[in-house]
Protein backbone atom coordinates (compact mmCIF):
# COMPACT_ATOMS: atom_id res chain seq x y z
CA UNK A 1 0.00 0.00 0.00
CA UNK A 2 1.35 3.35 -1.04
CA UNK A 3 1.19 6.32 1.28
CA UNK A 4 0.41 9.84 0.06
CA UNK A 5 2.06 12.53 2.07
CA UNK A 6 0.54 16.02 2.46
CA UNK A 7 3.94 17.35 3.36
CA UNK A 8 6.08 18.88 0.74
CA UNK A 9 6.46 22.05 -1.15
CA UNK A 10 3.33 24.29 -1.03
CA UNK A 11 1.53 22.20 1.58
CA UNK A 12 1.37 25.07 4.11
CA UNK A 13 -0.13 27.35 1.50
CA UNK A 14 -2.83 24.77 0.69
CA UNK A 15 -3.75 24.43 4.36
CA UNK A 16 -4.06 28.23 4.74
CA UNK A 17 -6.35 28.50 1.73
CA UNK A 18 -8.46 25.62 3.03
CA UNK A 19 -8.90 27.25 6.46
CA UNK A 20 -9.77 30.66 4.92
CA UNK A 21 -12.39 29.01 2.72
CA UNK A 22 -13.94 27.25 5.70
CA UNK A 23 -14.10 30.50 7.73
CA UNK A 24 -15.77 32.39 4.86
CA UNK A 25 -18.28 29.61 4.42
CA UNK A 26 -19.10 29.72 8.13
CA UNK A 27 -19.68 33.50 8.04
CA UNK A 28 -21.98 33.28 5.04
CA UNK A 29 -23.93 30.49 6.68
CA UNK A 30 -24.28 32.58 9.87
CA UNK A 31 -25.61 35.61 7.98
CA UNK A 32 -28.10 33.43 6.17
CA UNK A 33 -29.37 31.87 9.40
CA UNK A 34 -29.38 35.11 11.51
CA UNK A 35 -30.04 38.13 9.18
CA UNK A 36 -31.28 40.37 12.06
CA UNK A 37 -27.79 40.52 13.52
CA UNK A 38 -26.49 42.16 10.32
CA UNK A 39 -29.03 44.97 10.72
CA UNK A 40 -27.57 45.79 14.12
CA UNK A 41 -24.11 46.60 12.73
CA UNK A 42 -23.24 50.30 13.34
CA UNK A 43 -23.19 52.52 10.22
CA UNK A 44 -21.73 56.03 10.38
CA UNK A 45 -23.16 58.37 7.72
CA UNK A 46 -21.96 61.80 6.56
CA UNK A 47 -23.55 64.81 8.20
CA UNK A 48 -25.50 67.16 5.88
CA UNK A 49 -25.95 70.77 6.93
CA UNK A 50 -28.65 72.90 5.30
CA UNK A 51 -27.98 76.67 5.23
CA UNK A 52 -30.92 78.97 4.74
CA UNK A 53 -30.29 82.71 4.12
CA UNK A 54 -33.16 85.15 4.82
CA UNK A 55 -32.83 88.58 3.20
CA UNK A 56 -32.84 91.26 5.85
CA UNK A 57 -35.48 93.40 4.18
CA UNK A 58 -37.17 96.03 6.30
CA UNK A 59 -40.29 95.85 4.12
CA UNK A 60 -41.69 93.38 1.62
CA UNK A 61 -42.27 95.92 -1.15
CA UNK A 62 -42.63 99.65 -1.81
CA UNK A 63 -44.56 101.91 -4.13
CA UNK A 64 -42.87 104.80 -5.93
CA UNK A 65 -44.67 107.78 -7.45
CA UNK A 66 -43.69 111.18 -8.78
CA UNK A 67 -43.73 114.27 -6.61
CA UNK A 68 -45.21 117.64 -7.53
CA UNK A 69 -44.67 118.46 -11.20
CA UNK A 70 -43.69 122.11 -11.72
CA UNK A 71 -43.99 122.50 -15.48
CA UNK A 72 -43.21 119.28 -17.32
CA UNK A 73 -40.62 117.85 -14.91
CA UNK A 74 -40.48 116.69 -11.30
CA UNK A 75 -37.59 116.82 -8.86
CA UNK A 76 -38.82 114.41 -6.19
CA UNK A 77 -40.34 110.96 -5.76
CA UNK A 78 -42.53 109.66 -2.97
CA UNK A 79 -41.72 106.19 -1.62
CA UNK A 80 -44.48 104.50 0.39
CA UNK A 81 -44.89 101.11 2.05
CA UNK A 82 -42.01 101.67 4.48
CA UNK A 83 -41.94 99.86 7.83
CA UNK A 84 -40.48 100.89 11.19
CA UNK A 85 -37.31 98.84 10.58
CA UNK A 86 -36.50 100.98 7.52
CA UNK A 87 -35.75 104.05 9.63
CA UNK A 88 -32.07 104.98 9.51
CA UNK A 89 -31.30 102.82 6.48
CA UNK A 90 -30.16 104.32 3.18
CA UNK A 91 -32.55 104.25 0.24
CA UNK A 92 -30.99 103.88 -3.22
CA UNK A 93 -33.40 104.41 -6.11
CA UNK A 94 -33.18 104.38 -9.90
CA UNK A 95 -35.92 105.39 -12.33
CA UNK A 96 -35.73 103.89 -15.81
CA UNK A 97 -37.65 104.19 -19.08
CA UNK A 98 -39.40 101.51 -21.14
CA UNK A 99 -36.05 100.51 -22.69
CA UNK A 100 -34.48 99.98 -19.27
CA UNK A 101 -32.30 103.07 -19.62
CA UNK A 102 -31.58 105.01 -16.44
CA UNK A 103 -33.42 108.35 -16.21
CA UNK A 104 -32.33 109.58 -12.78
CA UNK A 105 -31.28 108.31 -9.35
CA UNK A 106 -31.67 109.19 -5.69
CA UNK A 107 -29.94 108.31 -2.43
CA UNK A 108 -31.13 109.32 1.02
CA UNK A 109 -31.36 108.02 4.59
CA UNK A 110 -34.89 107.12 5.59
CA UNK A 111 -36.67 108.72 8.51
CA UNK A 112 -39.70 107.51 10.41
CA UNK A 113 -43.10 107.04 8.82
CA UNK A 114 -44.59 104.82 6.14
CA UNK A 115 -43.75 107.18 3.25
CA UNK A 116 -41.02 109.67 2.43
CA UNK A 117 -40.33 112.26 -0.25
CA UNK A 118 -36.85 111.99 -1.77
CA UNK A 119 -35.12 114.48 -4.06
CA UNK A 120 -33.61 112.96 -7.22
CA UNK A 121 -30.25 113.96 -8.67
CA UNK A 122 -31.70 115.32 -11.93
CA UNK A 123 -35.21 116.55 -12.89
CA UNK A 124 -37.24 114.01 -14.85
CA UNK A 125 -40.42 113.75 -16.89
CA UNK A 126 -42.77 111.42 -14.95
CA UNK A 127 -44.55 110.29 -18.12
CA UNK A 128 -41.24 108.89 -19.41
CA UNK A 129 -40.75 106.63 -16.38
CA UNK A 130 -41.59 102.95 -16.84
CA UNK A 131 -40.34 101.52 -13.54
CA UNK A 132 -38.16 101.86 -10.46
CA UNK A 133 -35.41 99.80 -8.83
CA UNK A 134 -34.95 100.17 -5.07
CA UNK A 135 -32.56 98.98 -2.39
CA UNK A 136 -32.92 99.80 1.31
CA UNK A 137 -29.90 99.15 3.47
CA UNK A 138 -28.30 97.36 0.46
CA UNK A 139 -31.16 94.82 0.23
CA UNK A 140 -33.18 94.75 -2.98
CA UNK A 141 -36.85 95.57 -2.41
CA UNK A 142 -39.55 95.00 -5.08
CA UNK A 143 -40.84 98.40 -6.21
CA UNK A 144 -43.90 99.38 -8.23
CA UNK A 145 -44.07 102.66 -10.17
CA UNK A 146 -47.24 104.75 -10.34
CA UNK A 147 -47.65 107.99 -12.26
CA UNK A 148 -49.64 110.61 -10.34
CA UNK A 149 -50.93 113.38 -12.62
CA UNK A 150 -50.86 116.90 -11.21
CA UNK A 151 -54.05 118.24 -9.73
CA UNK A 152 -56.13 120.21 -12.17
CA UNK A 153 -55.56 123.82 -11.19
CA UNK A 154 -56.43 126.75 -13.47
CA UNK A 155 -53.54 128.76 -14.83
CA UNK A 156 -55.01 131.91 -13.28
CA UNK A 157 -57.99 132.68 -11.07
CA UNK A 158 -59.37 135.72 -9.24
CA UNK A 159 -61.10 135.92 -5.86
CA UNK A 160 -62.93 138.81 -4.19
CA UNK A 161 -61.70 139.51 -0.66
CA UNK A 162 -64.30 141.99 0.64
CA UNK A 163 -67.66 140.50 -0.28
CA UNK A 164 -69.17 138.22 2.38
CA UNK A 165 -72.35 137.87 0.29
CA UNK A 166 -70.47 136.25 -2.60
CA UNK A 167 -72.27 138.35 -5.19
CA UNK A 168 -69.24 140.25 -6.51
CA UNK A 169 -66.82 138.77 -9.02
CA UNK A 170 -63.47 139.56 -10.60
CA UNK A 171 -61.38 138.15 -13.43
CA UNK A 172 -57.90 138.30 -14.93
CA UNK A 173 -58.46 139.39 -18.51
CA UNK A 174 -56.35 140.22 -21.55
CA UNK A 175 -53.91 137.60 -20.33
CA UNK A 176 -50.75 137.46 -22.45
CA UNK A 177 -47.54 135.44 -22.10
CA UNK A 178 -44.23 135.82 -23.85
CA UNK A 179 -41.12 133.67 -23.46
CA UNK A 180 -37.67 134.43 -24.82
CA UNK A 181 -33.88 134.58 -24.38
CA UNK A 182 -30.99 132.86 -26.08
CA UNK A 183 -31.82 129.12 -26.09
CA UNK A 184 -32.65 127.59 -23.79
CA UNK A 185 -35.57 129.84 -22.89
CA UNK A 186 -35.17 131.08 -19.32
CA UNK A 187 -37.51 134.10 -19.04
CA UNK A 188 -41.14 135.02 -19.63
CA UNK A 189 -43.41 138.05 -19.54
CA UNK A 190 -46.88 137.83 -18.00
CA UNK A 191 -49.34 140.67 -18.61
CA UNK A 192 -53.01 140.84 -17.57
CA UNK A 193 -55.76 143.17 -16.35
CA UNK A 194 -57.93 142.59 -13.29
CA UNK A 195 -61.53 143.60 -13.86
CA UNK A 196 -64.94 143.42 -12.18
CA UNK A 197 -68.50 144.05 -13.41
CA UNK A 198 -69.28 145.83 -10.12
CA UNK A 199 -70.90 149.24 -10.61
CA UNK A 200 -68.45 150.86 -8.19
CA UNK A 201 -64.70 150.62 -7.71
CA UNK A 202 -65.14 148.58 -4.55
CA UNK A 203 -63.85 145.09 -5.36
CA UNK A 204 -60.68 144.10 -3.48
CA UNK A 205 -59.07 141.29 -5.45
CA UNK A 206 -56.55 138.47 -5.16
CA UNK A 207 -55.16 136.63 -8.19
CA UNK A 208 -53.62 133.15 -8.01
CA UNK A 209 -51.27 132.10 -10.82
CA UNK A 210 -50.25 128.46 -11.31
CA UNK A 211 -46.66 128.90 -12.50
CA UNK A 212 -46.44 125.16 -13.26
CA UNK A 213 -49.05 125.38 -15.99
CA UNK A 214 -47.52 124.45 -19.38
CA UNK A 215 -48.88 127.66 -20.90
CA UNK A 216 -46.05 129.56 -19.20
CA UNK A 217 -43.42 127.70 -21.28
CA UNK A 218 -40.80 127.78 -18.50
CA UNK A 219 -41.01 127.38 -14.72
CA UNK A 220 -39.76 130.65 -13.23
CA UNK A 221 -38.23 130.95 -9.77
CA UNK A 222 -38.16 134.73 -9.47
CA UNK A 223 -39.94 137.74 -10.89
CA UNK A 224 -39.97 141.51 -10.99
CA UNK A 225 -43.21 143.29 -11.65
CA UNK A 226 -45.44 146.33 -11.44
CA UNK A 227 -48.70 147.21 -9.63
CA UNK A 228 -48.78 144.04 -7.48
CA UNK A 229 -47.51 142.62 -4.17
CA UNK A 230 -47.40 139.17 -2.65
CA UNK A 231 -50.43 138.12 -0.63
CA UNK A 232 -49.78 138.13 3.16
CA UNK A 233 -48.35 134.81 4.33
CA UNK A 234 -47.08 133.74 0.92
CA UNK A 235 -43.66 132.01 0.98
CA UNK A 236 -41.57 130.01 -1.48
CA UNK A 237 -43.08 126.84 -0.04
CA UNK A 238 -46.34 127.92 -1.71
CA UNK A 239 -44.80 127.42 -5.16
CA UNK A 240 -45.87 126.80 -7.85
CA UNK A 241 -48.92 128.81 -6.78
CA UNK A 242 -48.18 132.55 -6.84
CA UNK A 243 -50.74 134.67 -5.00
CA UNK A 244 -50.86 138.41 -5.74
CA UNK A 245 -52.82 141.46 -4.62
CA UNK A 246 -52.97 145.05 -5.84
CA UNK A 247 -51.18 148.07 -4.41
CA UNK A 248 -53.17 150.77 -2.70
CA UNK A 249 -50.60 153.42 -3.54
CA UNK A 250 -50.75 152.50 -7.23
CA UNK A 251 -54.55 152.50 -7.17
CA UNK A 252 -54.60 148.85 -8.25
CA UNK A 253 -55.97 147.26 -5.07
CA UNK A 254 -59.65 147.75 -6.06
CA UNK A 255 -61.40 147.37 -9.37
CA UNK A 256 -64.90 147.84 -10.76
CA UNK A 257 -66.93 150.83 -11.92
CA UNK A 258 -64.99 150.76 -15.18
CA UNK A 259 -61.60 150.76 -13.43
CA UNK A 260 -59.10 147.98 -14.23
CA UNK A 261 -55.75 147.09 -12.64
CA UNK A 262 -52.98 146.41 -15.13
CA UNK A 263 -50.35 143.88 -13.93
CA UNK A 264 -46.95 143.04 -15.43
CA UNK A 265 -44.50 140.33 -14.36
CA UNK A 266 -41.15 139.27 -15.77
CA UNK A 267 -40.11 135.85 -14.49
CA UNK A 268 -36.74 134.11 -14.65
CA UNK A 269 -35.81 130.47 -14.18
CA UNK A 270 -32.64 131.40 -12.24
CA UNK A 271 -31.85 134.82 -10.87
CA UNK A 272 -29.53 136.70 -8.57
CA UNK A 273 -31.26 139.22 -6.30
CA UNK A 274 -32.55 142.13 -8.39
CA UNK A 275 -34.07 145.46 -7.38
CA UNK A 276 -37.85 145.43 -7.64
CA UNK A 277 -38.24 141.67 -7.26
CA UNK A 278 -41.62 140.47 -6.09
CA UNK A 279 -40.20 137.11 -5.12
CA UNK A 280 -37.00 135.07 -5.50
CA UNK A 281 -37.07 131.33 -4.80
CA UNK A 282 -34.00 130.36 -6.81
Please describe what this structure looks like:
The protein has 2 helices and 18 strands. The protein has 282 residues and is mainly β. It has 2 domains: 62-146, Sandwich (Immunoglobulin-like), CATH 2.60.40; 156-280, Immunoglobulin-like (Sandwich). The strands form 4 sheets. Strands 9, 12, 14, 15 and 16 form a 5-stranded antiparallel β-sheet that branches. A 5-stranded antiparallel β-sheet has the order 10-11-17-13-18, with no helix packed on it. It has a 4-stranded mixed β-sheet with strand order 5-2-1-8, with no helix packed on it.
Blueprint of the fold:
Elements: H1 11-33, H2 35-39, E1 62-66, E2 74-80, E3 90-96, E4 102-109, E5 115-124, E6 131-136, E7 139-141, E8 143-146, E9 156-160, E10 171-180, E11 187-195, E12 203-210, E13 222-226, E14 228-230, E15 241-246, E16 254-255, E17 261-268, E18 277-280
Parallel strand pairs: 1-8
Antiparallel strand pairs: 1-2, 2-5, 3-4, 3-6, 6-7, 9-12, 10-11, 11-17, 12-15, 12-16, 13-17, 13-18, 14-15
Reading off the top of the CATH hierarchy, the class of the largest domain is best stated as Mainly Beta
Which band does the percent of strand residues land in? 35-45%
CATH architecture of the largest domain: Sandwich
The whole-number mean of residue pLDDT values reads 83
Q: Over all CA atoms, what is the radius of gyration?
A: 43 Å
Counting DSSP H or I runs of 4 or more residues, the number of helices is 2
| Amount of helix | under 10%
Shape summary: rod-shaped
Stated plainly, the CATH topology of the largest domain is called Immunoglobulin-like
**SSE topology string:** HHEEEEEEEEEEEEEEEEEE
Largest sheet: 5 strands, antiparallel
Report the end-to-end length measured between terminal Cα atoms. Answer: 135 Å
Number of extended strands: 18
Amino acid sequence: MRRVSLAGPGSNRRWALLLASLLLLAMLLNLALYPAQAAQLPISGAKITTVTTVADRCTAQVSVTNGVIPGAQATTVTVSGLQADCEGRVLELTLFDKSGVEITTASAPLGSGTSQSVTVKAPYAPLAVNGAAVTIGSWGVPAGWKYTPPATVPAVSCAVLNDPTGTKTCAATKFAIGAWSVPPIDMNNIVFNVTSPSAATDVEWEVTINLADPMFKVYVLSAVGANVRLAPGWTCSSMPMLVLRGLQGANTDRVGGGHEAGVWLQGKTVSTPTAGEIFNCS
